[in-house]
Amino acid sequence: MHYITDFASGFMNLFQTGAKTFIGWMSSIVPVVLLLLVLMNTIIAFLGEERMEKIAKASSRNVLTRYMLLPFLAAFMLGNPMSFTLGRFMPEFYKPSYYAAMAQFNHTSNGVFPHINPGELFIWMGIAQGVQKLGLNTMDLAMRYLLVGLVMNFIGGWVTDLTTAFVCKSSGVTLSKKVALSSKSAETEQA
């Protein structure tokens, strides 16, 4: 009987600890995430979808803007998983590489911008708690993670470009390297 009561007590302790963590987040990180989401939606509303499309189109022309600037803007403005939608403005050839860079950036920027990937915030919070216990500044770690992530995301996108070129060549598939805008944007540009 002792084992059963210990198990039940431990089981309930698990949920009590989870509730304490949740309440802690409600008074610390949740308001920050909420305000960052409001800021993001305000910026998108202010810029408009057509301007966002133009930014994405211009970013797709250069390897640095394609795998560093555009993923940063997409993650900051749209968060995960919506940030992947800016890939629709990429030429077909660069879509796999954009996806690779974007998938990595949604993780590496979470310490500085928690609204980007709130679903994985618990990972960052666990790491940050350990860093705080050591008496170190978590923002230093977050900035290093972000900066290393930017470089690694760029390398990941560029390597995926090389991989895509190899697969296209070996399979005889030709992917376009020109941006195909949506019909709404094409009509706007013609007017």
Automatic annotation (TrEMBL):
Residue intervals passing through the bilayer: 22-47, 67-86, 145-168
Keyword Transmembrane: yes
Signal sequence, renumbered to the chain: none
InterPro entries named in the record: PTS_IID_sorb
Tree of life domain: Bacteria
Entry keyword set: Membrane, Transmembrane, Transmembrane helix
This protein's name: PTS glucitol/sorbitol transporter subunit IIC
